[in-house]
Design goal:
By secondary structure, the protein is of the alpha/beta class. The protein has nine helices and eight strands. The protein has a single domain, classed as Alpha/Beta hydrolase fold, catalytic domain (Rossmann fold), CATH 3.40.50.1820. It has an eight-stranded mixed sheet with strand order 1-2-4-3-5-6-7-8, sandwiched between helices. The mean pLDDT is 93.
Length: 266
């Protein structure tokens, strides 16, 4: 009888844990208040803009415009943590490249109202695309750039139209597989609300793609990025490194990969 009580007790604890994970899973997935970088000064000129989503949320965006007619425009979808300021060390490098860019903060991030979710982030991204189109841009003028969680948004958007290019920095195969990496004893496929299924969506994309990933990534295993590259359609390019962790180093080799990719799209 005592053994049975122990088993029942363990099951109660386990089920209670599953219930808590189901309820609070988005708190584990999205971290708007996390700050990975501090003190970076913006060296590229940006205009702070407000982008109204289709469901009535104003998103903060930074817009850098060199020449919309001559150069492609990057729309940057950031990862699951931090504010726009946390990407300054990357954005500064775009001042030396022949590109315009728009980076948006997701709902619930950088002071924006709303709560992040897979559906919500897709709405945010599509609203930003529409904002760019009002400036006269078409899909062929736009490069989608996804960073980590943002790769899930970029691959979703890239399926629908022929964009100029797609950049995936530290992409995962699916959020289900990524979650299993951290919670191997949890039935995440049954509990997870936001699935971001990159590995199936990438097959539907014929836009030129650049996949970047580091082999010592402790958050998204390198094999995921490699698999995304392998199943992506041509034309495709890769920048794989041996020593980069999840936050890739914007060194000369990575910048060269970006510049080369941009030139290939012209």
């Amino acid at each position: 009888m005592s053994f049975l009580k122990i088993v029942i007790g363990i099951l109660v604890i386990y089920i209670s844990l599953l219930v808590l994970l189901f309820i609070f899973q988005r708190n584990l997935m999205y971290h708007p208040e996390e700050n990975n970088y501090s003190g970076d000064k913006l060296e590229v000129e940006v205009e702070k803009v407000k982008i109204l989503t289709s469901d009535g949320i104003n998103l903060l965006g930074w817009f850098h415009k060199k020449d919309l007619k001559r150069f492609k425009t990057i729309i940057y979808f950031h990862g699951n943590a931090g504010k726009l300021e946390n990407r300054i060390h990357k954005l500064n490098h775009f001042k030396d490249m022949d590109v315009n860019f728009l980076i948006i903060a997701w709902r619930g991030f950088s002071g924006n109202k709303g709560k992040p979710s897979e559906k919500g982030l897709y709405i945010d991204a599509n609203s930003a695309i529409k904002w760019l189109k009002k400036l006269g841009l078409k899909e062929k003028d736009i490069i989608l750039y996804g960073e980590s969680l943002g790769t899930g948004v970029a691959t979703e958007i890239a399926q629908s139209n022929k964009y100029a290019g797609l950049i995936l920095e530290t992409p995962f195969t699916s959020m289900i597989e990524a979650a299993k990496n951290f919670y191997p004893y949890i039935p995440v496929s049954l509990l997870l609300k936001d699935k971001y299924d990159n590995q199936n969506k990438i097959k539907n994309i014929n836009t030129p793609v650049l996949v970047m990933h580091g082999e010592v990534d402790q958050i998204v295993p390198f094999w995921m990025g490699k698999k995304i590259y392998e199943i992506a359609n041509q034309p495709k390019y890769s920048h794989f490194t041996k020593f980069d962790d999840h936050m890739m180093e914007y060194d000369e080799k990575l910048l060269y990969a970006l510049k080369t990719f941009f030139k290939s799209l012209n």
